[in-house]
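Below is a typical protein record.
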Amino acid sequence: MLSKSTPLKIVKKEKQADKTYLFRLEGSGKKKIKFDYKIGQFYQVSVPGIGEAPISVCSFSEDFLEFNIRGVGDVTDKLLELEVGDNIWIRGPYGTSYPLDKLKGNNIMIIGGGTGIAPLRGALKYLEMHRADFERVHIFFGCRSPEEVLFKKDMHHWDRIFDLNLTVDKAPANYKGKVGLVTKIVEESGLDNRNKVVLICGPPIMMKFVIKTLESMGFHYDQIFLSHERRMKCGVGMCGHCMISGIYVCKDGPVFRYDKILGMHE
């Protein structure tokens, strides 16, 4: 736990989409930092003199941290200006996580939309490293367009070792992949609820309809875990920006088992 803001060095910066980059960070000093975080947790990421923002981890390693950062405001826009060799300040980790260590022996369904795919990347990295502990892994990802598909290098790898299903909302006429909402490819999969656990992250409206689709397929609410990480701001329950039905996403989440928060979901 980094209880106070600590500088980490950018060792890798890779463009994923327009105004969206994957950053890999390591300790900037001589002493090697070992990172201890769980899948779905977030760090407060800051630029001195500008501010800080809560960003979920999208990696799984004790040797480095990776964040997928999209420029949507003062802090994130400034972060995108930084280059390899520069420092980013972080503290954390904070929040709840996807309990993958307790879900061994299950089939896992991963459903993500847009930049919500980022926290789920960490889950897939975990599943890669612990592949023998789980049954089949089914991935359902939806993006707005082919240009906005994140982690294309990872997608090629996941397509070989997992059951990957990728769709986009809109595409040019010559596009050879699937076109349509992510709920469509989930429904068309024909999967049932037996021995399965579902991990979801994406825009609130997307998660709402994914849950409705899963319900129609026979899934129970205690089989579903979702992350509301996109709503967080201060990260410590002070600003109230992430409050939903009396629950602070940053303090009580961001990952919830769905049967525990009925009435909260939008």
